[in-house]
Task: inverse folding
């Protein structure tokens, strides 16, 4: 097993998902550590209010997050804390509705090479693009992989690498008010820059019912059209400034 721990987020009530990923890990000869996911059906108001702001959500996001989405973010926070409680320099974080390509087992060598390159000070590296494709700019080749940067990181948090500094930056995002994968796109707010490693080695399996939707369907949440429009413009201009700052020598 590589020096990178694999943290698999899995609900206690989803053993069928765990079995599928366990079978894939065995086929690739990999070990992993299960991170018990936070259950949106069982979170208390106090637990939610400790990390989530409904007020900021109303002001800055276009719909109320469901208990499932809040619990999903809290589950990723558990994985980040687990990394910081360890001696590891980074970790792979996976959700449990995934499929892994054979190349997933080769990530260790690529990450080791990145650690010895000018990109060693990375925060988050996406291993998946399960939804709408996003354009990327190649930075450098590392074995069979290419490290890329994005104008806007892809949605989805089913598989990514996160460094210790990346975990600290994301954990400082308290209270949160967006879904975890959307927050990763607002890089100037979190401080955690998102890169990608292509070809992607993780994808959503799309074979199981969504654990988030099983708590509440976010598509039924009331939409705030004006907030959506305002935040789209905010993102456009702040994202533009962010990349211009990064391009300065």
Result:
């Amino acid at each position: 097993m590589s020096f990178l721990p694999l943290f698999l987020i899995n609900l206690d009530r989803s053993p069928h998902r765990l079995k599928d990923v366990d079978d894939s890990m065995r086929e690739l000869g990999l070990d992993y550590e299960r991170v018990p996911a936070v259950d949106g059906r069982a979170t208390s108001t106090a637990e939610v209010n400790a990390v989530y702001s409904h007020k900021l959500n109303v002001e800055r996001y276009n719909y109320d997050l469901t208990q499932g989405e809040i619990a999903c973010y809290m589950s990723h926070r558990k994985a980040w804390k687990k990394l910081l409680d360890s001696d590891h320099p980074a970790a792979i974080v996976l959700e449990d509705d995934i499929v892994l390509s054979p190349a997933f087992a080769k990530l260790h060598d690529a990450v080791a090479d990145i650690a010895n390159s000018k990109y060693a000070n990375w925060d988050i590296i996406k291993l998946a693009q399960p939804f709408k494709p996003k354009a990327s700019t190649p930075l450098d080749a590392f074995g069979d992989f290419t490290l890329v940067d994005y104008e806007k990181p892809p949605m989805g948090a089913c598989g990514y690498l996160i460094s210790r500094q990346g975990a600290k930056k994301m954990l400082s995002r308290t209270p949160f008010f967006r879904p975890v994968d959307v927050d990763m796109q607002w890089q100037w707010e979190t401080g955690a820059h998102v890169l990608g490693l292509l070809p992607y080695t993780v994808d959503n399996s799309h074979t199981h019912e969504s654990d988030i939707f099983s708590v509440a369907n976010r598509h039924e949440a009331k939409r705030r059209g004006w907030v959506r429009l305002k935040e789209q413009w905010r993102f456009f201009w702040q994202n533009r400034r962010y990349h211009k700052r990064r391009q300065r020598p």
About this structure: The CA atoms of residues 141 and 147 lie 6 Å apart.
